[in-house]
């Protein structure tokens, strides 16, 4: 006994220090609001020698890139209105259209708000009716590091999809490009891997330990629930405001951490993870809802993005779950170290809740 207590005390201290570092990081990071979206959508229609473009961005991502679109450290609709010509001029410069006959001359044609997004209208006049169009979405390199631009090009009843990334900003049309699925699949994986609130919730689920069957049931209930609400929101059936969803996700972390203090294991936990999974699904949907995907794109985008989220979730659990089991076996039999971890999780959830609630007012 005498030799064991110092080891437990050392482990508890380490977990406490780790929890304190996590707490400080989360409360000082601007990402406590929510993780970045990193997606824009463009509709491009060619009529004779004129190309009409409508490009939709998430307002908060543009505000993060351009401080002049912020008021009180938040994306401001008033700031967007006051700077719409400046924003339009930026996009004309950063979205270059060319044809085999030469470059097309662009002009800003207006701006409108679309939920949490902002849509910018442009028109380009080309030297002659082009046989092919090439878009160079240079703005991708100026936005969030993992930003992707989903481009839909239409002419004469034909429709082509393509995705611009930082590595490939140039999109030639006139050739069929069907690369929409893979980039959105990757985006779903990145969204969960950089979604620290979702990851901490999953950690809270498995941290309690217990029968593997019960843990799998809890995680399955979470997956089914967030898939349902992700679909409802992305399809436009119903979605609550992010001002409610984001604080709710933070509270779910704190709740699970506190419950871990009193629950013996994960038996019956699937009920609460089913409920919180519905909330997290609306949070996942924010990545697709803040841009205006066309109805024909939504099924593919929804399936690819959700599939990517599940791949990322399974990858994280495959790494974390064995470590948690090992920790329970070696260090957490007296629950002291585990409670230290849960204190850190609860503090992180409460901190996120306060920050997001403040930002929503």
Word description of this protein:
There is one protein chain. The chain is α+β, with helices and mostly antiparallel strands and 361 residues long. The chain folds into 2 domains: 4-32 and 186-360, no CATH class; 39-179, no CATH class. It has helices at residues 4-28, 59-65, 77-82, 84-94, 181-193, 196-207, 212-234, 242-262, 270-289, 298-330, 336-360, and strands spanning 39-47, 50-58, 70-71, 74-75, 95-99, 102-103, 105-114, 117-125, 133-137, 148-155, 158-164, 170-173. The strands form 3 sheets. The protein has a 6-stranded mixed β-sheet with strand order 7-8-2-1-10-11, with helices on both faces. Strands 6-5-9-12 form a 4-stranded antiparallel β-sheet. The chain has a two-stranded antiparallel ribbon with strand order 3-4. Helix 7 (212-234) runs parallel beside helix 9 (270-289). Mean pLDDT is 81; it is low at 1-5 and 23-33.
Briefly summarize what is shown.
The protein is 54% helix and 20% strand. It is an alpha+beta fold and 361 residues long. 42% of the residues are buried.
- Quick one: how many beta strands? 12
The coarse silhouette is elongated
Q: Can you give the mean pLDDT?
A: 81
| First-last Cα distance | 53 Å
Radius of gyration: 23 Å
- Class derived from helix and strand content: alpha+beta
How much β-strand is present in the residues? 15-25%
Helix content: 40-55%
The largest pleated sheet is described as:
6 strands, mixed
